[in-house]
Amino acid sequence: MTDQATFSLKDLKRRMHGAVSVLKEEFSGLRTGRASVHLLEPITVEAYGSTMPLNQVGNVSVPEPRMLTVQIWDKSLVSAAEKAIRNSSLGLNPMVEGQLIRVPVPELSQERRKELAKVAAQYAEQARVAVRNVRRDGMEQLKRLEKDGEIGQDEHRGQADEVQKLTDATIKEIDEALEHKESEIMQI
C-alpha cells in the first residue's frame, strides 16, 4: 500500500503548488507603479447582457512604462469598458480616443505603497494557511493509513518527514515571492 501513500504525496505537492500559483496570480493584480497587462485582469465589463473580463472585449497592451491601452473591438462597448476601468478600485483615470482607451498609470504615493505591501502580506498569509491545511490533511491521511494497518510506523514517520519537507519548501517559496513583490512595490 506504499503506492497509495506515495500517490497522496504527489497530490499534496500538487495542492501546495496550487496555493503558490493562486498567490502569484493575486500578486500580478497588485499595482507596482509600472504598467502591466495583468493590472486590468480583475476588471469586468457589462457586455451583451452579461459581464465579461475586459481582455475578452478588447486587446490590452503596454506601449509605455506608465501607460496601458485597451483597443476595444466593438464600438458599442467602449463607454462600458471605460466606465468599468474608472469604477474599479485601482484608482485609474482612462481617456477615450475612438475605440482606443488610454489608461495612464500614476505614480504611487509612499502611503499607498505601504498599503499595497500590507495587502501582499495578507495574500501570502492566506497562501501559507492553505499550505498548512494541505499538510494537516496529509498528516491525517497518514495516521489513518497506519491505524488501518496499511502502512507501518516507520513508513508513517518517513512519509510525515517528506510532507514536512514539502511544506517547508513551499512556505519558503511563498516567503520569497512576497519578498520579491514587496521590493517591487516599494521601488520608486
UniProtKB/TrEMBL annotation:
InterPro entries: Ribosome_recyc_fac, Ribosome_recyc_fac_dom, RRF_sf. Residues 23-186 form the Ribosome recycling factor domain. GO terms for cellular component: cytosol. The keyword Heme does not apply. GO terms for molecular function: ribosomal large subunit binding. The keyword Glycosyltransferase does not apply. Responsible for the release of ribosomes from messenger RNA at the termination of protein biosynthesis. May increase the efficiency of translation by recycling ribosomes from one round of translation to another. This is Ribosome-recycling factor. The lineage of its organism: Bacteria, Pseudomonadati, Pseudomonadota, Alphaproteobacteria, Hyphomicrobiales. The gene is frr.
